[in-house]
């Protein structure tokens, strides 16, 4: 960790490893300029020393942000604009960020916000977890990572990933091709998450063996799923009947995760969301966890967070 000392409205940092500074500061000091854009501070560098000037609260947050990014680099991880914004958000949190991890074959996945840490904790403590909020908050990615970890450690036999295909009505017959070709485009985000965590040959082998199953929601009917992690993604596009059908598939020694964004409904007008209904119906039920993400928890490109805020303002003024 760098040595930090404060003097009124100026924060001084000194970094020991000069080889990390190019990536810490960014190309043409782009990371520092990003901090100056997001906070009312000015940042001056001289060798391995950084001077941050401004109001005390903001110089402290900027200092914490750089210290966190420096530690990230020391651990062999990379730093980009998204990481800068995530570190900045955490530095401004009143509560300290709990270090929470999920381990897969290809990487160790750490919580990148306090809400993600709370989400991982809820996954480990509850048999059923609902995660609702905007795109880019890691809802689906962390759910898949949790499922992969449970399967790799032998705690679960199967990982089952599901989505409502072609809006809520799952009108697959109107699409060209066989059933796999019909549903694959709607399940692609789940494949992408899997390939980020397991080598391609292992994903292919586990799908062939039935250890990983990726299927549209309609394929869940009439089944009881035991010793499995079962994930329903894009759950805002389920009807109340579909949601009840899915939730009652839970078998012995299984965990179920339901993710969705209620601001992205594709249901026909007048049909209530099964996700919204389930959240209100199951509130207070033992063994059920709820995590609500907001635009502040977006960990994608910084522009994604601004886009989400713009659409939220638009909806508020309608």
Question: What does it look like?
Answer:
The protein is of the alpha/beta class and 318 residues long. The chain has two domains: 3-91, 2-Layer Sandwich (Ribosomal Protein S8, Chain: A, domain 1); 101-316, P-loop containing nucleotide triphosphate hydrolases (Rossmann fold). It is built from twelve helices and twelve strands. The protein has helices spanning 21-25, 30-38, 56-74, 81-91, 114-125, 139-152, 166-170, 179-195, 200-209, 240-247, 274-281, 302-316; strands at 3-7, 10-14, 41-46, 49-54, 101-103, 108-110, 128-132, 158-163, 212-216, 228-232, 255-260, 288-292. The strands form three sheets. Strands 9-8-10-11-7-12 form a six-stranded parallel sheet. Strand 10 (228-232), helix 10 and strand 11 (255-260) form a beta-alpha-beta unit. Helix 2 (30-38) packs across helix 4 (81-91), helix 3 crosses helix 4 (81-91) and helix 10 packs across helix 11 (274-281). The protein is globular and about 65 Å long. It starts with a strand and ends with a helix. Mean pLDDT is 84; it is low at 166-170 and 172-176.
């Amino acid at each position: 960790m760098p040595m930090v000392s404060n003097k009124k409205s100026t924060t001084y940092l000194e970094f020991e490893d000069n080889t990390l500074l190019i990536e810490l500061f960014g190309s043409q000091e782009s990371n520092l300029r990003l901090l100056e854009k997001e906070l009312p501070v000015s940042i001056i560098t001289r060798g391995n020393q950084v001077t941050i000037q401004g109001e005390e609260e903001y110089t402290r947050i900027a200092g914490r942000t750089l210290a966190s990014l420096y530690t990230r680099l020391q651990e062999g991880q990379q730093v980009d604009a998204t990481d800068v914004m995530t570190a900045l958000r955490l530095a401004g949190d009143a509560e300290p960020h709990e270090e929470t991890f999920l381990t897969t074959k290809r990487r160790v996945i750490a919580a990148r916000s306090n809400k993600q840490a709370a989400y991982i904790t809820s996954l480990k403590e509850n048999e059923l977890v609902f995660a609702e909020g905007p795109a880019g908050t890691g809802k689906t990615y962390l759910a898949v990572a949790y499922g992969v970890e449970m399967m790799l450690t032998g705690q679960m036999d199967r990982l089952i990933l599901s989505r409502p295909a072609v809006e809520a009505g799952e009108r697959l017959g109107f699409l060209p091709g066989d059933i796999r070709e019909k549903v694959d485009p709607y399940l692609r985000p789940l494949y992408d998450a899997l390939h980020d965590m397991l080598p391609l040959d292992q994903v292919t082998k586990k799908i062939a063996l039935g250890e990983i199953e990726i299927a549209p929601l309609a394929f869940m009917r009439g089944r009881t799923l035991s010793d499995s992690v079962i994930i329903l993604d894009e759950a805002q596009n389920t009807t109340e009947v579909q949601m009840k059908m899915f939730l009652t598939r839970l078998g012995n020694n299984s965990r179920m995760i339901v993710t969705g964004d209620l601001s992205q409904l594709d249901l026909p007008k007048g049909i209530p969301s099964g996700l919204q209904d389930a959240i209100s119906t199951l509130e207070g039920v033992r063994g059920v966890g709820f995590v609500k993400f907001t635009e502040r928890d977006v960990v994608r490109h910084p522009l994604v967070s601004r886009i989400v805020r713009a659409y939220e303002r638009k909806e508020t003024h309608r």
